[in-house]
Amino acid sequence: MPTYRQCLKQAQKQMQNAGLSEQSATLLMLELANMDSQNLYMDYEKEMPSELEESFNEAFPRLLSGEPLQHILGFEWFYGYRFKVNEDVLIPRPETEELVANILAAYDEHFADKENVMVCDIGTGSGAIAISLKKEEPKLNVMATDISERALAVAGENAKINEAQVAFCCGDMVEPLIERQLHFDILISNPPYIPNDEELEHSVKDFEPHVALFGGDDGLKFYRIIFERSKLILNEKSMLAFEIGYNQKEALMAEAAKYFPDSKIEVLKDMNGKNRMLFIYNHCD
Q: Are 3 and 47 spatial neighbours (Cβ–Cβ below 8 Å)?
C-alpha cells in the first residue's frame, strides 16, 4: 500500500501537469479520510488503508478532468452549514457568505423590532442564502423562488438536512410571489450576472448550470427585471440586497437609481476590497 505522502505527491504532480490546483487533491484526501491537515501530516508516512486508497483512486480522475471538488464530494460548506450540491445548482461561493453577514447586520439595524419580518430569496439555487438566514435568525419568515424545479428539489433537501423552515415556490424571478399577492420586507438575490460572451473556467462552464450563470449581454438583465417588478411585492419600508460582479458597481447603481430614485443605494466591498454587494433601502431612515 502507498503511504499518504506517496499518493498525494503523485496526485499533486498530475494536477500540476494538468494546470489545476494541487490543493484540490489534498482537500479530496482530507474529506475522504475524514482528517484535518494536522492529522494528515502526522500520518504522512503511514500506509493508507486499502478502502481509502480505492476511494481516492476512484474519485481522483474526476478531479483531474476539472470536475469541481464539491460535485465529487456531493456537498459544500456555507456559513457553517453543509449543503448538498450537484449539476443542477450553482456551488455556493465564500463571497456570498459576506452577503449573508451584511444582510443580518442590516436586519438588526432596520428590522429587529418588527414582529413578522418577511424575506424572499429570488433564484435560490441550492437554498444556501435562504437557509443560512433562517438558521441564523429563526424569527425571519423566509420564502425562496427558482425557475428550476430540479434546483428547488436540491434546496428542499438542504432545508431538511439543516432543519430550516423555508417555503419554496417554482417560477420566474418574482412572478410566483406577485401571483400569490405576497409582500416582503427584505428581498435578496444572487442572480446570474456574467455577460453572455465572457469566458469562464472549464470547471464552471462545463459543470455548473448556465441558467444560474449568464445575465444577458451586459450581465444586468435579471437585476433590471427585479428592480422593475419588485415594487409589486415590497412593503413601503423594505430593503433589497444583491450580490454583484466586481466591475458592475457604477452600472448597477445607475440602474437602481432609475427605479428607486428616492432610496438609499450603496455598494459594499468584500474582504478582498472588491465591490460585490448592492443594498437598496426604502424608507429605512
A: yes
190 is in an annotated binding site: yes
Tell whether 99 and 12 lie within a shared domain. Answer: no
Known binding residue 191? Answer is yes
- Let me know whether 57 and 191 are in one domain: no
User: What would the pLDDT profile of 133-182 be if each residue is shown by its tens digit?
Assistant: 999 999 999 999 999 999 999 999 999 999 999 999 999 999 999 999 99
143 close to 167: Cβ distance less than 8 angstroms: yes
Could you tell me which residues come within 8 angstroms of residue 262 by beta carbon, excluding any fewer than 6 positions away? none
Number of folded domains in the chain?
2
What secondary structure letter does DSSP report for 93? P
Cα-to-chain-centroid distance, residue 269: 17
Residue 192 marked in a binding site:
yes
193 is in an annotated binding site: yes
Quick: pLDDT tens for 9-48.
999 999 999 998 899 999 999 999 999 999 998 999 999 9
To 10 degrees, the CA torsion angle through 38, 44, 47, 51?
A: 50
CATH of the domain at 150: 3.40.50.150
Is 125 marked as a binding-site residue? yes
For residue 96, say whether it is annotated as part of any ligand binding site: no
Q: Give SS3 for 277.
A: strand
Q: Full-prediction pTM beyond 0.85?
A: yes
